Amino acid sequence: MSDSKEKYVPKLIKSVLKDVIAQKPLKKGIQQIRICNAWGETMGNHILSYTDEVRFSQNTLYVKLRSAPLKIELSYGLDTLVKRINDHLGGEFVQKITLV
After folding, report:
1. Residue 65: strand pairing partners
2. What CATH number is attached to the domain comprising 57?
3. Are 40 and 54 in contact (CB under 8 A)?
4. Which of 42, 54, 72, 73 could form a disulfide with 36 if both were Cys (CB 3.0 to 4.6 A apart)?
5. Is there a contact between 17 and 64 (Cβ–Cβ < 8 Å)?
6. pLDDT value of residue 89
7. In which domain, by residue range, is 76 found?
8. Strand-strand pairing, 96-99 and 60-65
9. Model confidence pLDDT, tens digit, residues 11-31
10. What is the pTM (predicted TM-score) of this model?
11. Within-domain flag for 68
């Protein structure tokens, strides 16, 4: 029975979680959450307070704002916002932002 202890090598929780997250469906879901959270992290609390919903689908970040003037103001710099979010994420994830 003492041989059973030798079969299992203890692993760090960090390494186990990394293996679990690396599974394709989980990785995609976590990546979408990171991308949606990047909106608030890059835009700040003031703009986040006017944001009702953020959703990511097919390389497009959909942001629902409840302030028409803010929507118009942000629409002038969407390319800059895409670059800012991608820089924050460390890769080219978002190709387009659509304000709804």
Report:
1. 51
2. 3.30.300
3. yes
4. 54
5. no
6. 94
7. 12-99
8. parallel
9. 899 888 888 777 767 777 888
10. 0.75
11. yes
Residue 1 lies in a domain: no
> Which residues are CB-contacts of 52 (< 8 A; sequence separation ≥ 6)?
64, 65, 66
Cβ-based neighbour number of residue 39 at 10 Å: 21
Task: Tell me how far apart the alpha carbons of residues 24 and 55 are, in angstroms, rounded to a whole number.
Answer: 20
> DSSP strand E in the chain: where?
51-57, 60-65, 96-99
Residue 85 identity = I
- Token look-up 């803010």 returns 70
Query: Which residue do the tokens 């990394």 mark?
Result: 18
The 3 state secondary structure assigned to 9-31 is CCCCHHHHHHHHHCCHHHHHHHH
From its phi and psi, is residue 44 left (phi > 0), alpha (psi between -120 and 50) or beta? left
